[in-house]
Automatic annotation (TrEMBL):
InterPro entries to which the protein is assigned, alphabetical: Lamp2-like_luminal, Lamp2-like_TM, LAMP_CS, Lysosome-assoc_membr_glycop
Species: Chrysemys picta bellii
Family annotation (Gene3D superfamilies): 2.40.160.110
Gene Ontology annotations for the cellular component aspect, listed alphabetically: autolysosome; autophagosome membrane; cytolytic granule membrane; cytosol; external side of plasma membrane; late endosome membrane; melanosome; multivesicular body
Xref: PROSITE patterns: LAMP_1, LAMP_2, LAMP_3
Family: Belongs to the LAMP family.
Official protein name in the record: Lysosome-associated membrane glycoprotein 1
Length: 418
């Protein structure tokens, strides 16, 4: 009796374990016969710009929610020659992320990534005007047939008012054995070592670029944007782009590019809560996107979009990187943000925009001049050293003075005794 009970418990535990693993396991698509054809495990975050009833532009940042699940009636294993496999993940109040797969004789790929979002979901889009919107884009997700695709690096996709960021991706379509293959196709971004090895970086761009070898600080440029109410972006800063990339020979290349202000053209646009500053230097373009946080009355850098052409030794010479979930260069409306220390703005793991000697003000600018200065934390920390040195010097002076006074008193006393 006890044995049977024990057996039962064991069975229950096993079922529970399987169940837990299933709910833990990522997304699976099965056909009518129960055969698994797609498995995907991934982190997804979204940044969506939308307008409110008052005409304001806001940005909503969110991730694939806990209740995310495969929508069986929108997913499919596809029919040979007739339709492609589809993974459809539903979450929140009517949001849908969908991947359409396609294959050739050797490869399979995510042909199109589609995101359908419900702007009436006020928990995600407060004060939104409502409605639905759909964006889609071709992807670079591709793997050999019968291997699992893995890409732990962040993969950002910019689609007009939506940025989708994929990371920690493991997936496979056209499964043969109900499970992921033991063989793996690793994406290019994962092959770049996170810390570039010294010898590969020293051999950087010996060809086209002028000697960039000791990366000097870039010169400070002066940039402005004029809106309907006069100047709406005023920025003085030195700009440096730092990109690590995969070369054709499999090694890591490094490109450090200083913007030369006289050769940099700029333009932009503003409304009352969103502003763009676009800078073009040669084949490189940087777009800064500033937003106004109306509840704190502060402006801040919300996004950076980098497009550039890498040296011909790069595996892929065209490069675009986007980060649209930043919160940098922040100051009160009417004030300016200032930082003498170098600031490294993270765009992706392989792309940094380094900003030097920056002073910036957005939206409210009186008489084309910077307002009151808000110094960055880095500078304030740097101030500590001069203060310590100053205090030490003052202490030294005091000690010398006291020593001098004591000495004078002694010698004075000496004279009196003689
Ligand atoms: C999904 O990926 C996460 C992070 O990479 C990992 O911790 C988790 O174990 C994975 N889940 C499955 C079922 O593979
Ligand atoms: C998305 O952006 C386009 C312009 O790029 C705009 O016309 C459209 O209204 C936006 N859609 C939503 C839902 O905000
Ligand atoms: C798909 O399934 C969901 C719930 O699982 C249901 O609400 C929806 O109406 C179904 N759609 C279609 C087209 O059958
Ligand atoms: C699909 O197309 C291929 C070649 O075009 C053909 O050999 C195969 O029989 C087709 N399969 C079906 C189910 O129609
Ligand atoms: C993806 O596949 C579904 C189902 O076959 C189809 O309705 C949809 O139009 C496809 N979307 C794209 C962007 O190809
Ligand atoms: C939404 O609108 C209300 C009133 O119109 C306002 O008080 C609130 O701050 C707004 N929320 C956001 C996130 O803008
Ligand atoms: C990816 O997985 C690693 C290790 O499991 C984890 O530390 C990291 O936070 C994950 N990233 C995201 C965006 O989920
Ligand atoms: C499928 O499974 C069988 C036996 O488990 C194995 O021999 C075969 O290599 C597997 N095929 C693939 C593509 O993983
Ligand atoms: C992995 O790939 C190799 C070479 O392509 C192949 O010989 C091997 O059977 C594959 N293993 C699995 C588990 O698919
Ligand atoms: C920048 O300011 C100068 C001088 O005030 C002005 O001539 C120029 O048009 C401005 N440029 C832009 C893009 O607003
Ligand atoms: C460029 O970035 C790499 C890491 O991505 C870093 O090791 C290197 O110091 C950076 N160089 C500059 C000049 O910022
Ligand atoms: C311009 O100023 C007017 C009056 O102060 C204001 O209502 C309007 O929103 C401003 N426009 C922009 C784009 O800031």
């Amino acid at each position: 009796m006890a044995r049977i009970d024990g057996g039962r418990w064991l069975l229950l535990a096993a079922v529970l374990l399987v169940f837990l693993q299933m709910s833990w396991s990522a997304f699976e698509v099965t056909d009518q016969s129960g055969k698994v054809c797609i498995i995907a495990n991934l982190s997804v975050s979204f940044s969506v710009e939308y307008s409110t009833k008052s005409g304001q532009q806001l940005a909503a940042d969110f991730t694939l929610a806990q209740n995310a699940e495969v929508l069986a009636n929108k997913s499919s294993c596809g029919k040979e020659n007739a339709s492609a496999p589809v993974l459809a993940i539903g979450f929140g109040a009517g949001h849908l992320l969908q991947m359409n797969f396609t294959k050739t004789s050797k490869l399979y790929s995510v042909d199109e990534l589609t995101f359908l979002y419900n702007l009436s979901d006020t928990t995600v889009f407060p004060n939104s005007t409502g409605g639905k919107n759909e964006v889609s884009q071709k992807t670079n997700i591709q793997a050999d047939l019968d291997t699992r695709y893995r890409c732990f690096s962040t993969n950002r996709m910019n689609m007009s008012n939506v940025t989708i960021t994929l990371s920690n991706v493991t997936l496979q379509a056209y499964l043969v054995n109900h499970t992921l293959s033991g063989n793996e196709t690793v994406c290019a971004a994962d092959k770049i070592p996170t810390t570039p090895v010294a010898p590969t970086t020293t051999s950087q761009t010996p060809t086209s670029q002028a000697p960039t070898s000791p990366p000097q600080n870039p010169m400070t440029g002066k940039y402005n944007v004029t809106g309907t109410n006069g100047t709406c972006v005023l920025a003085h800063m030195g700009l440096q782009l730092n990109v690590t990339y995969l070369r054709k020979d499999g090694k890591t290349g490094l490109e450090v590019l200083n913007f030369v202000p006289v050769n940099t053209s700029f333009s932009g646009s503003c409304n009352h809560s969103s502003a763009f500053l676009s800078l073009t230097f040669g084949k490189t373009r940087l777009v800064f996107h500033f937003l106004l946080n109306t509840s704190t009355d502060k402006f801040f850098l919300h996004g950076v979009d980098v497009t550039t052409t890498l040296p011909s030794e790069a595996k892929e010479t065209k490069m675009e990187a986007v980060n649209s979930s930043m919160s940098e260069l922040r100051a009160k409306l009417g004030n300016s943000y200032k930082c003498n220390a170098e600031e490294k703005l993270w765009v992706t793991d392989h792309v940094f925009v380094n900003v030097f000697d920056v002073q910036v003000q957005v939206f409210k600018i009186d008489e084309n001049k910077f307002g009151a200065v808000e110094e960055c934390q880095l500078d304030e920390n740097n101030m500590v050293i001069p203060i310590i040195v100053g205090a030490a010097l003052a202490g030294l002076v005091l000690i010398v003075l006291i020593a001098y006074l004591i000495g004078r008193k002694r010698s004075h006393a000496g004279y009196q005794t003689i």
